Amino acid sequence: MKQRAGYLFMAPVALFLLVGFATPIFIVGWYSLIEPRTFELTSDLTLANYRAAFTEGYGGPFYWSILGAFATVATCALLAWPTAKMLHARAGRGAAIVTGLIAVPIFVSESVRLFGLSLFLMPGGGILAGSLKALFGVSIGTVLNTKIAVWLGLVYVHFPFMLFPLLLGVALIPQDRIDAARDLGASRWQVLREIELPLALPGLAIGALLTFVLCIGANAEAAILGGQAVTVVTRAIEQRFSYAQDWPMGAALTMLVTLVTALVVFPVLSRIDLNRLIRR
């Protein structure tokens, strides 16, 4: 009886996922297989759009988006680990204030935050260049409209999505186990490698997945901070669906991004203990 009631409560959610996720994915997948630059769903199916994705200049934006997402995940993890350790060790008013300062920007429009960062990176009159010039007499070249600027924007926007799941993971580490390892002569590196990282892995994995999925679909960072120097796959998709009116090509690129995301997300989710993280 309880099992039947559980299925009954799950039915609306399953229907919502079917209509809101599976159906659009099916439609996009079908569009990706029709003739290029057509809107006829009954036309002959073809793989020409997928071949074009790797032969007509889309490979660069596609690979850059993937590498940029991985680079952002790695950078955010390196920054979030000591931050999470510090916030967990210094639980109290100070930690709450720091957490609030990190969380508040999430509620501000991403575009507004990125335009603020562009003022910081702007050449000549920018905050970074102006400060270095005024304080140290050092003149630097422009960082804006480069891949480095886009990478900084990705890290700046997505850092909280790595930090907060990692905080939950760090909370899973028993302090007495760390103390016992140190009493037995374990080095700091051994404690990190054999105790802290394995126990915090569920939180680290969730943060990495959130960051990766959001980064591979990011567009505003490249548009605002990269200018014409950086084209990401999401911008290429937008152009195919809008200006070029080549929906089959845009659909093929969308399916490739979805495939890459699934190949990263599902293997990781199958290997982490979400129940342990949630119960904590």
From TrEMBL:
Domain ABC transmembrane type-1: 62-268
PANTHER family for this protein: INNER MEMBRANE ABC TRANSPORTER PERMEASE PROTEIN YDCU-RELATED (PTHR42929:SF1), INNER MEMBRANE ABC TRANSPORTER PERMEASE PROTEIN YDCU-RELATED-RELATED (PTHR42929)
InterPro entries: MetI-like, MetI-like_sf
Coiled-coil boundaries: none
Protein's name in the database: ABC transmembrane type-1 domain-containing protein
Keywords, in A-Z order: Cell membrane, Membrane, Transmembrane, Transmembrane helix, Transport
Keyword presence, Mitochondrion: no
Taxon lineage: Bacteria, Pseudomonadati, Pseudomonadota, Alphaproteobacteria, Rhodobacterales
Compartment(s) where it occurs, according to its Swiss-Prot or TrEMBL record: Cell membrane
Transmembrane segments: 7-33, 62-84, 91-108, 114-136, 148-173, 249-270
Membrane-topology annotation of the record: Multi-pass membrane protein
